[in-house]
Amino acid sequence: MKNANSSKQDGRTAAGIILKKSFLTQGLKTEKRETVDRRDAKLAMAHIYVAMTALLLGGLAGLVQVMVRSGQFQLPFGIGYYQVLTVHGILLGLILTTFFIFGFQISAVSRTAGTLSDKQRFWGWTGFSVMTAGTIMAAVMVLLNEASVLYTFYAPLMAHWIFYLGLAFVVVGSWIGAFAQIARYAQWKRENGKQPGPLLSFMVVVNNLMWVICSIGVAVAVLFQFLPWSLGLVERIDVLMSRTLFWYFGHPLVYFWLLPAYMVWYTIIPKIIGGKIFSDSLARLSFLLFLLFSIPVGFHHQLTEPGIDAFWKFLQVVLTFMVVIPSLMTAFAMFATFESVGRAKGATGLFSFFKKLPWDDVRFVVPFIGMVAFIPAGAGGIINASHQMNQVIHNTIWVTGHFHLTVATTVVLTFFGAMYWLIPHLTGRKLTPKLNRLGIIQGIVWTVGMSIMSGAMHIVGLMGAPRRSNFSTYGGSEQAAEWVPYQLAQAVGGTILFIGIVLIIYIFLQLAFFAPKGVQEYPVAEVSEGAQQTPMFLENWKMWITICVALILLAYTIPFIDMMQNGPPGSVGYKLW
Length: 577
Prior knowledge:
By secondary structure, this protein is mostly helical. 73% of the residues lie in helices and 1% in strands.
């Protein structure tokens, strides 16, 4: 009897040990899925370090710009205004955004699809190295005043060939990094059979596909037009085609900036506010619609240019307006999430659910400001893309004000908001209450500065003030005198914005190096129980890519043939010196 009882007790003890081990093992697996691998975190942080360096230098150049335009400041040491303008546009429009997005996307794939393999991580580092080398090459040429060709680097402006080669390296390096991220998602699909992939990783794949497809345009222009021309291998360049290839890339670039912000809104914000994703299917469909309708629309930046038939401009304007649909889908999904959370916390009035949102949490407040800013930014975008209204604001500083509402407010504030959990998670630290409060202050400072500066740009743009220009060159003309108050307002707003940049750099350094050690959650929300099951056709990549390519061919094939055969003087075969 004793032996039997002992045997039973030993059995219960053994079973308990097994269950305990199983529970601990399960917990470890869960924790591993909820954290980014340290090796992947280092790769992500390497990208973000470059991005924050670009923010500081590009922001300083922006401050100098608005001071010069105000007429109250002269550039020292022979530095040119367009040299500063090029630094500002390229560092903030290309380098800051691309490096931060890739850092965030690497972490997102690692967090939701699993740790990168050694091979995938190797290609991630390779892409980072090529991009960084290209950035340095281009930056050196701009600093030497050998590439003051602005963010758009339009011909007939010519830069040093090293500048163009550097830009090519940035693009090719980004392709390498993008394919490394896509490869991890493809591995997850192979390992998990026929089921929808993780939503956040799915979004990363869509954004990378859009980036690779659209950046082919700028790569072709640089490698086959600008580089041979700057090397003296050819005497002529097709100006209209070079501009068309740039804007084939230039407008999807806006959505390459925007979609990572949407990733945060769809998948991260619901978790932060204590809710769930409203609909997995709606989120995936909205991203696929952006893939389809963001690329074949570049002509709406060229509505005043000769050499492009009006029908093709009109077609691309229609396709441009199609992106309103996924934008409204996103707005609906986000406010449905907000209301669901508010109602669950006891809100009963029509808009009383807003009071229940975490207004003391910087991770929510700062991205929410970005969401609100997208309302006037989207309205301005409709004006920019409209056939008739574009005539009023084309090539005025209104367009610059619009860009500062979209990328420099909606996108950048969402990135800043993500930093408060992303950076400490990747560095093994914690967001402190002090940094949380300082982050809210920084968001308010940024909002005030941008409201003043962008608002002044929009108003004076309607008065005819040109973009890309140093207003002080207009002398004492009557028209220029009317612009003076708005130029001064831009300088005030730009100064406040630079204070915001100093604050965010300080916060970044604290989160990366000095905040207390700890574990910061990488918040990824679950899908609501009431959401319908995600249909698998949303992951039929062959179908969606085929439709995307078909739309591109429809929008561009005949116009390109027409450019080659019937280009106007000053475009095809134009000799540039």
